[in-house]
Structures are given as structure tokens and as C-alpha cells.
Design a protein that fits this description.
The complex is a heterodimer.
Chain A lengths: L10 H8 L8 E8 L5 H10 L6 E6 L11 E4 L3 E2 L10 E2 H10 L8 E5 L6 H10 L1 H6 E11 L4 H4 L3 H9 L2 E5 L6 H14 L4 E4 L8 H4 L29 E9 L4 H15 L3 E9 L5 E8 L2 E9 L6 E9 L3 H9 L7
Parallel strand pairs in A: 1-6, 1-7, 2-3, 2-6, 7-8, 8-9
Antiparallel strand pairs in A: 4-5, 10-14, 11-12, 11-14, 12-13
Chain B lengths: L1 E7 L4 E7 L2 E6 L5 E3 L20 E3 L2 E5 L4 E4 L2 E5 L7 E3 L6 E5 L2 E5 L18 E4 L9 E14 L7 E14 L5 E6 L4 E5 L4 E5 L8 E4 L5 E5 L4 E5 L12 E3 L6 E6 L6 E5 L3 E8 L2 E8 L4 E6 L5 E6 L3 E6 L3
Antiparallel strand pairs in B: 1-28, 2-3, 3-4, 5-6, 6-7, 7-8, 9-10, 10-11, 12-13, 13-14, 14-15, 15-16, 16-17, 18-19, 19-20, 20-21, 22-23, 23-24, 24-25, 26-27, 27-28
The chains are: A alpha/beta, B mainly beta.
């Protein structure tokens, strides 16, 4: 397990470990996921052909739906490297490590790298490659996971496909594509269901993957500065669940200061015991005797935290979101609230 | 030290290969250069799009490959597939050329025709190494990737040996004596397999991922580098490196990026990202060290087969030949 949160009281150490700072020196990577036929290739073609001022290299799965013949496309075979006896947070993509290792040797660097996964891929190992491998972490950073959802057909997969649910759960941006093929009411219900699964993602409704390219490439979903751009409605606790998905978001909001040591221990225990089922985490914390915000995020068992600057005029309000499978909302709430300093 | 010549490639010179007095310098992108001893280009080859793989001499001709999924031999395309190809290697006796592409090992004969390749492998070929030549036996090749190493005789339906472990290996070197297979792994570790014992040795504790690895020509030493310290493992005696104390050679200012033993005189050359090249000469228990500082980070090293000449590739695109003859 790699928590990265050994001690909130020594967050300078965490800053060094976080791998999320100094991003100006590193090349951003966008991970493009989505089920077969969701429109990934259409979006890729647009990114490769439209004028957006960025030199983008694309790593495409060798067995993609339709191969793209373009001189900036590299074909690869998705290859999972399990490390440390199958520890889920140490599972990485070997093909990416080798391709990107070569690309990073170039004198003429790319402005952006886009990785397309197969429709059946688990985004976890792709994301973790950029946290678990030292060379990848030093030279690249994950900008965002972008998931295309076929608005007309996704309901055929959501109930019985772990991959479809995980692709939604991991996303920073969701393109609800092929909206022209779905009625307004059905679309609203689908969007609400997706929102319950992933409270953190930006959702865009599109047809033919038609979206301004910066909304895909300039997201900063893994940037801690954006760690808690959550729909305020999501955290207000008034949700009406019409469908019981096993992938859900759990939001926690509480005023007051946390005991740093207790918070660290609770988070470490939580990811150690439930990390395989936790896809994404983001949070902002107020710690006792600390004037600044502590912001954090995580993927499975990997967590990063950093000083988020002064609270300023904002209330010292802790906000935390888990996205995962079979999450125990009550237990997570109780666990977090036990970390709050009790009033004297 | 005397520089015999230097020239510029289009990009970081990631690989060097000698053939007599010709030196092939393969940059990560752009044309692949064929240089004479004064580093004059005597026949460059076109590159492979977004990335070149390591080149190899095969039957006196240069074989090249790359991210475009193609293999060219003597300027002729002998393979075109979709998946990237990271390197081609010729078998020690010179009869076969091989390349890993996804879950296949492509094998070609001297005429560039497909010959006894391996397909449908359980995992992608991260790297492979030919076993030393044996005229009485089928050519042997070790494939590494997720899950460890598999050793095959060309044409067989099953591997003749396998070394499994719970991680993944990225690079492979088979000792010229045939006894040892060494792998550099995804984690900061090395596996050394003793074929005489079927006994894998997992060496951990490296400061960084091992990026450079080379056997001496007689197989008695294995050099590994990743961190600034070069480690040389003794590969002699009944146990080889198992239980032995390796040599820890310092002098680098940054992580070691390349290592090569001279087939002519056993010297070890290592290079780092700051441009430091160390030349180690082994004299009994003593190790003599010569330190050179070049103008750019070292990305590849290759010794001439019979002369005390060292090819040096640099990360800003320079390919140079240094003479260490007195």
C-alpha cells in the first residue's frame, strides 16, 4: 500500500512525494476511456485534425475499434504489469512505461499525450502508471480521465459491466455522447444516474463527440488546486436514489478542525481495507492549529496531499468525496466525524 | 583518450551497434546513421516515424525497426504490422533476426523471410535475448515481460525453461558463456538465473530502476547501473553472485544510463546523464578507473569488437568515437 499520507503534520514530506507539483516541467497525459462504440475514435480524429495549437501524441490500443492512420499515433497492446504480489495500487501498464520512456527521450517534446484504452479496460492501471513508476511520475502527469458514454446504449452495460461502471467512476470528464439519439427525459435520468455514481466529474452532453477540445485536454482533474470542484448540490445530502448502483459517490461535509493524526490513521486504514473498491477520492481538510487548507486526492490506495494555501474568508469546512464500489456511506461518515476535534 | 570523430543525429542517440569499422547510430527519432570510423555518414537509413527501435547488423546489413511496426533490412521492408517494435537482434551465429511485437516473437532468416517465430504468447515481449550459439542445437531465445522469463528453442511448441515471479521484467541479457540470464525489472531489482541450477536469484535494494546492464564477453562479470553507483557482480564459481560481495564502483554524478564491456579487452565503460563516462580496467583484485566528462548526457555506449574504440551516443544527438589506445 502506498498512502503518501504518512503524517499530515509533516506535509512538506508529502509535498515531495505527491508528484503533483512542478507540473509545468512535465507533460500532461489525458486518458480516454469508453465502451466500444461510444465515440472514442471520433473524438481522437478530431483532436488529431483540428487546429488547437497543441502537438498531441496518441497511444492507441492495437485492437482499437478502427485503427487511426496518422503519423502521431502509436499502436500498443495493453499489457498489465502486476507488482508486489498483485497489490492493486501497484498494478501498472507495461506498454505505456516503455512507449513513454522512449517518447520522453525526444528532443522535441510533445505538448500533450493522449492514451486511448480499449472499451473493456480498467482505467486503474493506466492512472497508477503515472504514480507508481518513478520515471513516469518525474516526467509526466495525469491531466484527466475522459470517459465517453454512449447515451443510447450505456444502460445495456451499466448493470452488468464492471468496466463500464469503473470507467464512469474514474472520470474527471464525461462526454454523454450520441445525445441526439435519446429523448430529453431519458437523457436527464441517465445523467442523474451517472452523477450519483461520480459526483466529481464534469458532464458534457455531445453529439458526434462534438466538444471544444480544451474541455478535453485542459482539465486539470488531478491537479490538487481543482481537487474539490464538486457540485454543491451533491454535498447537501438530499439525494433521491431511483436506482441502486453498486458504484456510488459518498460526499462528506463538516465544519470544524480535524485531528491530523486521527485523520491520517483513518484514511490509511480505509484505503488499506477498502482501497481495491475505492476508485477516486478528493478532499479539502481543516486541521487543528493549521491556518492553511490541506487538499488531497487518491486513486485506489495511492494518495497525495498538499498545502492548499490559506482559508482566507472561506469557512473552515472539511469536504471529502469517495467514488467507489459498495461504499458504506454511514461508516465513512462516522469514521470521518470521529477525526474531528471535539469542542472544549 | 583521442576522439576519432563525432557527428550529429536528429535526436537522442539511444543505440549504437558496430559492424567491423562501421557504427550504426540510432536516434530515438529521425534517420539512422551508418558512420565510418571518422563518423562520416556512409549510408543513413530512414527512420520509423514517431520512434525508432534499436537496430542490429544482420548478415552485414543493417536491420532497423520502430514504433511504426515495420522492420527494414538493407533498405527493404521485411515486416509491416500495427504494434510498435522496440528492437531487432541478430542471433549470435548470425542465422536469424528477431523482434518482439506485442505477444509475438517475429523471426526471419538471412533472406528476410519469416522463420520459426513464436506467436500467441501469454504476455507481450518486453525484451528478449538470444542464447549463445550452439551449432548442435536449435537457436535459443529468452523472452521477458510480465511474470518473468521463458526460454524457447526456435520451432518448439513449449518453452524449455521458465523463471516465474510475481512482477515484470523489462530487459534481458544472456551471458556469452550461456550460464546466466539476467533481467532488469520494473521494480528496482535484477533477477539472475543460473541455468546450471535452475535457481533464480532476485537481487533487490537498488536505489533506482536498473537501466543499464551488461555481461563481460567471458560471462564472468555482470555490470548493472541505475543509481550513480555501478555494481559489478561476480559470475564465476559454483554460486556466482549468490552470496558474493559485488564491486561497488562510484564516480558518476547521476544515474547510470549506459554500460558496455569491451569484447576486446574486458574494460567496462559506463555513462551517466551529466556526460560522465567511466572506464574501468580489471587487473586481478584491482580496478583502475578513468573518468571522462563529455559535453552532453550519455545515452548509449558500444565497444568496437577488436580495437580499444568506444562509440558514445549522447542525449542531444551527438554520436562520437573515442580511441583509448595509447
Amino acid at each position: 500500500m502506498c498512502t503518501g499520507l504518512e503524517n499530515f503534520a509533516q506535509d512538506s514530506c508529502i509535498l515531495r512525494r505527491s508528484g503533483l507539483f512542478g507540473v509545468m516541467d512535465r507533460t500532461p497525459v489525458t486518458i480516454l476511456t469508453g465502451f466500444l462504440g461510444a465515440g472514442k475514435t471520433t473524438l481522437l480524429n478530431r483532436i488529431l485534425t483540428e487546429e488547437h495549437g497543441l502537438r498531441v501524441a496518441v497511444i492507441e490500443n492495437e485492437f482499437g475499434e478502427i485503427g487511426i492512420d496518422h503519423d502521431l499515433v502509436i499502436n500498443a497492446d495493453e499489457e498489465i504489469f502486476e507488482m508486489n504480489n498483485g497489490c492493486v495500487c501497484c498494478t501498472v501498464r507495461g506498454d505505456l512505461i516503455r512507449i513513454l520512456g522512449n517518447l520522453m527521450k525526444r528532443r522535441e517534446k510533445f505538448d500533450h499525450i493522449l492514451i486511448e484504452t480499449t472499451g473493456l479496460a480498467d482505467p486503474g492501471p493506466v492512472v497508477q502508471t503515472f504514480f507508481a513508476d518513478d520515471e513516469m511520475r518525474e516526467r509526466l502527469f495525469v491531466n484527466a480521465v475522459v470517459t465517453l458514454v454512449d447515451a443510447r446504449h450505456i444502460l445495456l452495460h451499466l448493470d452488468d459491466s464492471d468496466e463500464a461502471r469503473e470507467q464512469i467512476a474514474f472520470a474527471d470528464v464525461i462526454l454523454l455522447n450520441k445525445c441526439d439519439l435519446v429523448g430529453a427525459d431519458d437523457l436527464a435520468r441517465l445523467e442523474a444516474r451517472i452523477r450519483r455514481m461520480n459526483a466529481l466529474a464534469k458532464i458534457h452532453r455531445t453529439t458526434n463527440a462534438g466538444i471544444e477540445i480544451p474541455k478535453v485536454l485542459e482539465v486539470g482533474g488531478f491537479n490538487l488546486d481543482h481537487a474539490m470542484e464538486v457540485d454543491p448540490h451533491f454535498l447537501d445530502g438530499h439525494h433521491h436514489h431511483h436506482h441502486a448502483d453498486n458504484v456510488t459517490s459518498v460526499g462528506i461535509e463538516a465544519d470544524g478542525d480535524c485531528d491530523g493524526q486521527a485523520l491520517n490513521e483513518w484514511l490509511s486504514t480505509t484505503v488499506r481495507e477498502q482501497g481495491a473498491d475505492i476508485f477516486r477520492m478528493k478532499g479539502v481538510f481543516a486541521l487543528k492549529d493549521r491556518p492553511d487548507r490541506i487538499i488531497f486526492q487518491g486513486v485506489h490506495m495511492i494518495m497525495n496531499a498538499a498545502n492548499g494555501g490559506p482559508w482566507g474568508a472561506r469557512p473552515r469546512r472539511n469536504r471529502l468525496v469517495f467514488i467507489g464500489r459498495n461504499l458504506d456511506r454511514a461508516a465513512l461518515n462516522a469514521g470521518f466525524r470521529a477525526c474531528l476535534e471535539q469542542p472544549a | 583518450m583521442n576522439q576519432l570523430g563525432s557527428t550529429r543525429a536528429d535526436d537522442n542517440v539511444a543505440h549504437l551497434a558496430w559492424n567491423g569499422d562501421l557504427l550504426a547510430a540510432t536516434p530515438v527519432t529521425g534517420d539512422i546513421l551508418v558512420l565510418d570510423i571518422a563518423t562520416r555518414d556512409v549510408g543513413s537509413r530512414p527512420g520509423h516515424g514517431l520512434g525508432n527501435g534499436d537496430s542490429a547488423w544482420f548478415g552485414g546489413q543493417l536491420a532497423t525497426c520502430g514504433f511504426d511496426g515495420r522492420i527494414r533490412l538493407a533498405g527493404r521492408e521485411i515486416h509491416a504490422g500495427r504494434g510498435m517494435i522496440e528492437r531487432v537482434k541478430a542471433s549470435p551465429e548470425g542465422g536469424f533476426l528477431a523482434a518482439g511485437q506485442a505477444k509475438s516473437l517475429l523471426v526471419f532468416d538471412r533472406d528476410g523471410r519469416p522463420a520459426r517465430g513464436l506467436g500467441g504468447l501469454p504476455c507481450a515481449v518486453a525484451d528478449f535475448a538470444w542464447g549463445p550459439g550452439n551449432p548442435d542445437d536449435s537457436p535459443r531465445v529468452a523472452l521477458v515481460g510480465a511474470g518473468g522469463a521463458r526460454m524457447w528453442r526456435l520451432g518448439d511448441a513449449e518453452p524449455f525453461a521458465r523463471f516465474d515471479w510475481g512482477g515484470a521484467s523489462l530487459r534481458a541479457e544472456w551471458s556469452p558463456c550461456g550460464r546466466w540470464l539476467a533481467t532488469a525489472d520494473q521494480t528496482p531489482s535484477v533477477h539472475i538465473y543460473d541455468f546450471t541450477k535452475n535457481n533464480p536469484l532476485h537481487i533487490q535494494g537498488f536505489e533506482a530502476k536498473v537501466r543499464a546492464m551488461a555481461f563481460s564477453a567471458d560471462g564472468s562479470r555482470l555490470a548493472t547501473g541505475g543509481a550513480p553507483v555501478v555494481t559489478v557482480w561476480p559470475c564465476t564459481g559454483p554460486n556466482g553472485p549468490d552470496g558474493a560481495t559485488p564491486l561497488q564502483l562510484d564516480g558518476h554524478d547521476a544515474d547510470v544510463s549506459a554500460a558496455a564491456f569491451s569484447p576486446a579487452n574486458g574494460k567496462l565503460a559506463t555513462g551517466d546523464a551529466t556526460g560522465v563516462v567511466l572506464i574501468f580496467t580489471f587487473k586481478g583484485e584491482r580496478v583502475l578507473r578513468k573518468r571522462l566528462r563529455l559535453d552532453a548526457g550519455i545515452s548509449s555506449l558500444a565497444w568496437h569488437a577488436s580495437r580499444d574504440w568506444l562509440g558514445v551516443g549522447m542525449d542531444e544527438g551527438t554520436a562520437a568515437v573515442l580511441s583509448l589506445e595509447s
